[in-house]
Design brief:
The chain has helices spanning 8-11, 15-28, 74-78, 102-106, 112-138, 141-153, 157-162, 165-170, 177-189; strands at residues 30-34, 39-40, 45-50, 52-57, 61-67, 71-72, 87-91, 95-100, 193-196, 199-203. It is an alpha+beta fold. The protein folds into 2 domains: 8-137, Jelly Rolls (Sandwich); 139-203. Helix 2 (15-28) crosses helix 5 (112-138). The radius of gyration is 18 Å and the shape is elongated.
Length: 211
Amino acid sequence: MTNQSLSIHIVTPPHDASSYILNIVKNHGTAKIAQPDEEIISENVIAIGSGTLEAYLNDSTVISHISEGMIIGLSNYFSKKSNHLNIHYKAITTSLYYECRSSDLIKIESDPKFFRATSEYISWEFHHILSIKSILETGDAYTRVKFCLEWLESSPMPYKKRYTAIAFINSRAIISRGHALAILKELKSGGYIELANGYLQGIRKVLPPRW
């Protein structure tokens, strides 16, 4: 991984582990629906069946995109109450999810296969979040804008329809709106990005590593 981008291995959760946990939660949990902009607040483990969500760190900064097959609440299930990550989730589109009570998971947590899968997934989750935080909190202004543009470009369509480029950047990176707009203007005039009414239509040339 470079300091400007995330590798596909960090962005994508481990397939076998997430599939195994999804089936466990689906079989032992309850199916529920979250409507757009509805927050999911739960102390239980949740597996996403379909739809798109966002994860907010400390109520304000979007730190991750959540989609089909991903698991939330797993790290908190295995941690002490005082060590819980302060992460909240909000649906972007109508989303189907399965919620499994802790008391139901206790019955199978001694299964070695379950332990291996959850360990692998939690390890990925922490690496994923910390890697994004590192880029968005320690990179310079251009690095943050570049990362957010590439993140938006690679995101499913619901995110592209929901956010203008500047709104996406400001919801994820600590950077002044004016500074971010100035960088976007220069990238657009240089033919690197295409914008329509503020919405990203695409990255047309590889963004330079420095600006």
